[in-house]
Amino acid sequence: MAIENLDAVRLLDEHRHDAIILTTMSANNVHHGLPSVSKNEHLDFPMGGAMGKASSLGLGLALAQPDRKVMVVDGDGSLLMNLGSLVTVGNKAPENLYHFVFENGVYAITGGQPVPGSGDTNFAGMAREAGYASVYEIDNTEDLATSLDGILEQKGPTLICLKIVPVIENTPVQFRDRPSRTTQIAMKDLQGALAD
Amino acid sequence: MQQEAVLHPASIIAELKKNKVTHVVWLPDSETNFMYQQLTEDPEVDLVPVCREGETMAIAAGLWVGGKRPVCLIQNTGIFESGDSIRGLGLDVNNPLVMLVGYRGWDRHGVARDSAARFIEHILHAWGITYYLVETDDDANRISMAMEEADRTSKPVAVLVGTEFGA
Amino acid sequence: MIPSQQGMQLINERRGEALVVSATTALREWGSISERRDLDLDLSDCMDKAPGVGLGLAIAQPERKVLVLDHGSVLRTNLGSLVTIGNAAPSNLVHFVMEDEDHPSTDGLPIPGMDNINFRALAQDGGYARIYQFDSLEDLMFSMEEVMEGPGPTFVSLKVYHDGDIPAYPTRSMADSLKTVRESLDSTPY
Ligand SMILES: Cc1ncc(C[n+]2csc(CCOP(=O)(O)OP(=O)(O)O)c2C)c(N)n1
Ligand SMILES: [Mg+2]
Fold first, then answer.
1. B128 within a domain of the structure (yes/no)
2. Quick check: C71 and C98 in contact, CB under 8 A?
3. Whose CA is nearest to atom 18 of ligand 1?
4. 3-state helix/strand/coil string of C3-60
5. Domain holding C45: CATH number?
6. Which range of residues forms the domain containing residue B131?
7. Tally of domains within chain C
8. Do residue B28 and residue A51 have CB atoms under 8 angstroms apart?
9. Paired sense of beta strands C19-23 and C66-71, if any
């Protein structure tokens, strides 16, 4: 079983309240990621570039904004590239950080090649050992819908590993649709929203 | 929009085989995805997938010391990620490593907008790493030139794969 | 706790023809203990990459054992290597990690919160075939044969301390050690 990419981001947006959501990779896709459904664009941080650094960036945001929840939506290949960040986050232990991983088993954006250890790596187990306060694994839409509020009520840092159906990109990069806002503009917007 | 195919996986793989490459240590990217299928199916070259590009030079160094002939296959963004490994496990230990590099943002018609493209050649210059550009099947033999140069100089050499898509 | 140099001595006695990649504090001790320097790779630089170099060697030399003598202080900056190795699954690789109670790499200063990473669990989740932890020399001695002979990739955490000074880094360069091992393996250039 697995959750559709679009359903997952829609649910995250529906249950966010005033949380910042930082998305990368498939979660950040203009067609089936958060930018295609978000009703709270001013609190979105669509991260382009710097593969793997969403968790670190989210940690910075969470430390800067302790009274606000920060939801990071990471890719599995991306998290593998910065696996040490689990320890960095676990060590600093921000209570307001919720780290979602879209475990689709592949590098979807670059053509669907399997990530190392695809299907065998236990991200939730690793996060628990690294010091996250709680960890979850969810593989169907219904469970995600019913458990999200409860998860976000608990203190973090929390890792939520979601089994996601991969949406594989085969369009050459130069022909892909660009987001309506560049990362720089989105960052400015978010800075403004947080300053209000 | 469909681009005419100009660089085919077969020509690159033929070059790798001509040079007796045994292992491709890699992290995928869109620029070199077109080779994935054929590389995985090829019994003569072994793929070693990694989590992070900085690992590729280390694994390649181990393969080289152990008597194999590896190449790395990563994106230009991965070169930025790997700075310390290229220095320590490439340049400093005389590793004749050929790095095949997907040239994200490559644009032969003008100034590249993507900073991954704008910086890559400067970075290679700064390290004194020579590079060859491969865009079409006709260029593929530059991989052999890179291999020869890496062996002759005992230094890493880059091959930038700046291509439109092949089928 | 295992007196670090005695642990190394034991590995030295049991290594046979194994190739050994060592880094940081482990390299400093190993360099003065090993009796087969012709089969040792010294990672005196890029020290967090010992697992990667070990993996490459293990793939290139499947008939030979490859031992990585790693240290918690550098493994924590390259945790993804545990998944890379788990995925490549070389059966001839044994990855020793010194977990040190005196933090020699940071002049004795612990880094708050960073010194109790459960590497064993991470290696397990990353896909290693066998996981061990030893905190006494007797236990290590007793199990060494099993550790060395069983199918890998094998992860071995050693809880160590240092009695006495830690030797300096070996004088030969990293490049020299690579060259030496290449020659020992008689790896003709392709
Ligand atoms: C340092 C670096 N290496 C490689 C790339 C190429 N790249 C872009 S997206 C991507 C795959 C991302 O995979 P994952 O995080 O699993 O997200 P998914 O595409 O599956 O949503 C890769 C390898 C990059 N952008 N940066
Ligand atoms: Mg993925």
1. yes
2. yes
3. A108
4. EHHHHHHHHHHHCCCCEEEEEHHHHHHHHHHCCCHHHEEEECCCHHHHHHHHHHHHHH
5. 3.40.50.970
6. 9-161
7. 1
8. no
9. parallel
Ligand 1: which atom is nearest the Cα of residue A107? 13
Assess C75–A contact: CB distance below 8 Å, yes or no. no
- Residue type for A4, please? E
Q: What is the pLDDT of residues C97-146, one digit of tens each?
A: 999 877 776 666 766 666 678 999 999 999 999 999 999 999 999 999 99
Percent of the residues in chain C that have a pLDDT greater than 70, as a whole number: 92
Residue A4 tokens read as 């559709």
Between CA B26 and CA B47 the distance in angstroms is 7
CATH number at residue B14: 3.40.50.970
Q: Which domain holds residue A96?
A: 3-195
Residue B132 main-chain phi, psi, to 5 deg: -120, 145
CB contact under 8 A, B165 and A172: yes
Using an 8 Å Cβ cutoff, are B103 and B165 in contact?
no
Query: Would you say residue C190 lies in a domain?
Result: no
Burial class (CB in 10 A: 0-12, 13-18, 19+), C166: middle
Query: Residue A105 and residue A118: Cα distance in Å, rounded?
Result: 5
* CA distances from residue B167 to A13, A154, B2, B27 in whole angstroms, order as listed: 39, 50, 11, 20
Contacts of C83 (CB under 8 A, 6+ apart): A80, A83, A116, A117, A121, B51, C126, C127
DSSP letters spanning A99-154: EEEEE-SEEGGGT-EEPTTTTT--HHHHHHHHT-SEEEEE-SHHHHHHHHHHHHHS
Q: Is residue B34 one of the residues assigned to a domain?
A: yes
Residue B52 domain-assigned (yes or no): yes
Q: Locate A67 and state its tokens.
A: 């009274």
Task: Report the residue among B33, B51, B73, B75 best suited for mutation to probe ligand 1: largest number of ligand atoms under 8 A from its CB.
Answer: B75
Angle at A89 between CA A88 and CA A95, to 5 degrees: 150
Ligand 1 in reach of A9 Cβ (< 6 A) = no
User: Is B2 part of a structural domain of the chain?
Assistant: no
Weakly modelled stretches of chain A, pLDDT under 70: none
Residue C138, token pair as written in the block: 């007797």
Residue C96 within any structural domain of the chain: yes
- For residue B167, name the pLDDT band (cuts at 50, 70, 90): very low
The alpha-carbon gap from B153 to the nearest alpha carbon of chain A, in Å, equals: 32
Interface contact B89-C61, CB threshold 8 A: no
Tell me if residue B155 falls in helix, strand or coil.
coil
- How many domains, chain A? 1
In this structure, is residue C11 part of a structural domain? yes
The answer on pLDDT for B2 being more than 50 is no
Count of domains forming chain B: 1
Structural domain including C106 reads 2-184
